Amino acid sequence: MTITITAFEHSPDGGKGLSRDTRVRWALEEVGQPYNVRPLSFEALKQSAHVCMNPFGQIPTYEEGDLCLFESGAIVFHIAEHYAGLLPSDGNARARAIMWMFAALNSVEPSILEIVVVKFAEGDKPWSKERMPLVFDRIRQRLRPLSARLGDAEWLDGEFSAGDLIMVSVLLRLRMSGILDEFPNLAAYVARGEARPAYQRAFAAQLAQATGT
Amino acid sequence: MTITITAFEHSPDGGKGLSRDTRVRWALEEVGQPYNVRPLSFEALKQSAHVCMNPFGQIPTYEEGDLCLFESGAIVFHIAEHYAGLLPSDGNARARAIMWMFAALNSVEPSILEIVVVKFAEGDKPWSKERMPLVFDRIRQRLRPLSARLGDAEWLDGEFSAGDLIMVSVLLRLRMSGILDEFPNLAAYVARGEARPAYQRAFAAQLAQATGT
């Protein structure tokens, strides 16, 4: 069955790969599944046809036959569950890989997305400048234990998994802030993720889309 | 195999059921699995024995034989995957139930947890009072489409699922704020969740723990 995902017609980051379609593209590249992309304008995102699919009016969504999903974590999980390459076959190792997906999305990403609130949603507020260091400190509170747990390991738990794919995608959002450089093993972990051929293909595809090339 | 979870020795909410062990207890009650609880003091949470299990030093964790998990979403998913009652058997319906778990944890809960930042982490800051309405507005931006999607339905997608269990658990955090009452169908949805016998048993168990009765 044909897989179709949605992505921004013009990504707000201009092709830095931070839009959430990149993690879905990466997962599809890891498992070797071809996919189509339906680009959506910001206006289309708010229209009912899309809202019926994703009530929160966001990208990416995923269509495959009768199945229609939104929420990048759920989409990556669905891909990982149905195609080999992103989840270990051992039951306990599989549960831990899924655990890292949830940990990345619920225990790490929210602290990082606060940067967007400070910079954009509340960028014009008088407290904006003073709040940024507090937000950065809360991010460090998450990165410190994550860095300690990763240690010298290549990936979070044995082989590369969907848990690493989501965690690297989440940490990539920190590149511009410089915080990642405070944790050299996490910076190296992210670099290992980016060096994977599947990530490279996914990145190139979203960049081509963003720049119209 | 015996299931053991961790919970706060003394829950910071005094037994209102907002600590994340409640959602795990609820899931175990829904699938009819007995469990033990290992209560942890705040000091114990930061000690290495616990940190080895959950690097972020939080409850709940889940032990079953050789398996050791943290992150409430991952634990509820593991329970739902291994015991009948929380995920539909139809493949597409199952994927959508899992999608709602991720949506609750990644698209709804982060906006709600910002209340904690305003009230506690930044409660002493001069901008605290002025920021609260902004945080409330961002919560409404999530609840409005969620309410529209739920409509008059009993649950988010057909039968009650792990997706509803997590979404209700997340929305329960809003009770004190009054925001939930602005969306009568969401308030009724949460009330339906709370009325389930399994939730009642889970709530009673965490309350007994919190109050030492």
Automatic annotation (TrEMBL), chains A, B:
Pfam families: GST_N (PF02798). This is Glutathione S-transferase. PANTHER family: GLUTATHIONE S-TRANSFERASE GSTA (PTHR44051:SF8), GLUTATHIONE S-TRANSFERASE-RELATED (PTHR44051). CDD domains: GST_C_8, GST_N_GTT1_like. Coiled coil: none annotated. The lineage of its organism: Bacteria, Pseudomonadati, Pseudomonadota, Gammaproteobacteria, Lysobacterales. Signal peptide: none annotated.
